[in-house]
């Protein structure tokens, strides 16, 4: 058997042997998980089966804002660019498992010294050299080093794709949350402005009564103080509206000019949005497959596990084959003649002998990063189920608060009506009227806030279960 054939047989045997890796086999961490998530039975008694629940709010303005954010939000564009970078790294890692082939061509012209005694008598000191060649090299993946690098790169690509899903889910949640806050502030501002008009009417009435001698300076001072307090509330709510508009403009990816002078369209009022509130028929408990942050954490763990295999492979020998085929001639016309052909075939085996503990440190570092990734994965799973628990608890509590607040508001509104009649007839003091109106206004404002909280809890639920829910397959 010729040398070339022997080398080829050896190469084939080592390639087949290269299927054996030295790294740890990945296994998903075993965690005790709930089999079902219980949906609270709210008083509204409504159900939902759509994955994108906000569409059931029937607010075209909100849907348009979400579409705008999906196109222009910078965090989303940044996440997409990171996916492209990770995909390129994955392609590069995969390419390392294949032979590399290079083509080369060169020409040179040299003059040798005639006084050095190296040239034969009468030889031409000027010579030419022309070369063309095709070379190839291949590293046999004996211990799974390249396979683990490929696995780690693909896992990091999947992690970046999951991170983009995290950004997208968070973006939807943040846009909806800010829109709900904006509509809530709008409603509270309308209440405060209506109350301000009432206070201004009372101030004019008290001035007339004071001039007529049927009122006193104490009552007049109370009216002025309450009027000023209401003006402060209006100013603060206008500030909240303006700040929320600028926050939305940033989320929508608008220009600096549009952020400095935000103009956010309005759709349904907060009360109308609340009336559209729906609950899912059932919640999925398979959060390990649904939540993008858990998917990203597990892919990071898979990559760290593969990194350990790459590091351990450094202990073992590496084998590389190289070959080249080409032609060389001193005369360009003879470059393609049979006599100008040249080739070589070589194999190199490298075994680390002494690295002063460098490889051991590499393995220890990779194992430590794997332990960190495992802890982060477990923490992410724990946090996800806590999120679901807290959101469901908030939904129940907000529903109970809404029912009690509504009953209280009806009673306070009737009390205010009676006190107003008694005040105009001179049977009740302004302080009695002030207390009745203040109590009713506080409950109205708290009801608006409760509606926002309940809607926001639904947004948090959407985010907690991984971006929506659907009816389980029958």
Task: Describe this protein's structure.
There is one protein chain. With 474 residues, the protein is of the alpha+beta class. It is built from eleven helices and four strands; from the N terminus they run H-H-H-E-E-H-H-H-H-H-H-E-E-H-H. The chain has helices at 3-17, 60-72, 74-95, 145-212, 217-251, 256-260, 270-275, 287-290, 292-312, 358-424, 430-464; strands spanning 100-111, 126-140, 318-329, 341-350. It has a four-stranded antiparallel beta sheet with strand order 1-2-3-4. Helix 3 packs antiparallel against helix 4, helix 9 (292-312) runs antiparallel to helix 10 (358-424) and helix 10 (358-424) packs antiparallel against helix 11 (430-464). The longest helix is centred in the middle third of the chain and has 68 residues, at 145-212.
What oligomeric assembly is this protein in? single chain
Number of helices: 11
H/E topology pattern: HHHEEHHHHHHEEHH
Q: Mean pLDDT, nearest integer?
A: 86
Radius of gyration: 38 Å
The share of residues in helices is 55-70%
């Amino acid at each position: 058997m010729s040398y070339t054939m022997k080398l080829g047989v050896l190469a084939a045997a080592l390639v087949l042997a290269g299927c054996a890796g030295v790294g740890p086999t990945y296994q998903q961490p075993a965690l005790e998980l709930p089999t079902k998530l219980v949906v609270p039975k709210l008083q509204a008694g409504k159900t939902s089966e759509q994955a994108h629940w906000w569409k059931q709010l029937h607010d075209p303005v909100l849907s348009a804002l979400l579409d705008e954010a999906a196109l222009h939000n910078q965090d989303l564009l940044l996440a997409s660019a990171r996916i492209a970078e990770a995909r390129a790294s994955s392609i590069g890692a995969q390419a390392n498992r294949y032979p590399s082939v290079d083509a080369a061509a060169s020409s040179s012209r040299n003059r040798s010294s005639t006084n050095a005694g190296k040239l034969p008598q009468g030889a031409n000191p000027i010579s030419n050299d022309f070369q063309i060649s095709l070379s190839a090299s291949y590293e046999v993946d004996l211990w799974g080093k390249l396979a683990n690098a490929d696995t780690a790169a693909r896992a990091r690509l999947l992690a970046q794709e999951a991170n983009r899903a995290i950004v997208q889910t968070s973006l939807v949640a943040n846009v909806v949350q800010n829109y709900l806050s904006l509509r809530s502030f709008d409603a509270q501002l309308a209440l405060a402005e209506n109350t301000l008009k009432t206070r201004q009417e009372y101030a004019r009435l008290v001035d007339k009564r004071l001039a007529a001698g049927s009122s006193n300076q104490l009552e007049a001072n109370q009216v002025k103080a309450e009027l000023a307090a209401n003006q402060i509330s209006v100013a603060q709510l206008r500030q909240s509206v303006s700040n929320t508009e600028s926050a939305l403009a940033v989320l929508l990816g608008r220009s600096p000019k549009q952020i400095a002078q935000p103009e956010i369209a309005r759709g349904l009022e907060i009360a109308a949005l609340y009336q559209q509130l729906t609950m899912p028929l059932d919640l999925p408990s398979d959060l390990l497959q649904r939540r993008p942050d858990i998917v990203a954490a597990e892919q990071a763990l898979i990559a760290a596990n593969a990194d350990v295999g790459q590091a351990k492979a450094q202990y073992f020998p590496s084998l590389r084959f190289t070959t080249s085929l080409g032609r060389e001639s001193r005369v360009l016309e003879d470059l393609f003649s049979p006599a100008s052909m040249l080739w070589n075939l070589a194999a190199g085996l490298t075994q680390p002998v002494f690295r002063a503990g460098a490889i051991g440190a590499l393995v220890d570092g990779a194992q430590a990063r794997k332990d960190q990734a495992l802890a982060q994965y477990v923490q992410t799973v724990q946090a996800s189920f806590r999120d679901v628990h807290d959101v469901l608890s908030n939904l129940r509590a907000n529903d109970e608060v809404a029912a009690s607040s509504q009953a209280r508001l009806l009673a306070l509104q009737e009390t205010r009506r009676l006190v107003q009649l008694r005040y105009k007839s001179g049977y009740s003091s302004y302080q009695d009227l002030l207390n009745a109106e203040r109590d009713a206004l506080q409950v109205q404002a708290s009801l608006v806030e409760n509606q926002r909280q309940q809607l926001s809890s639904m947004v948090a639920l959407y985010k907690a279960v991984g971006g929506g829910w659907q009816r389980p397959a029958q």
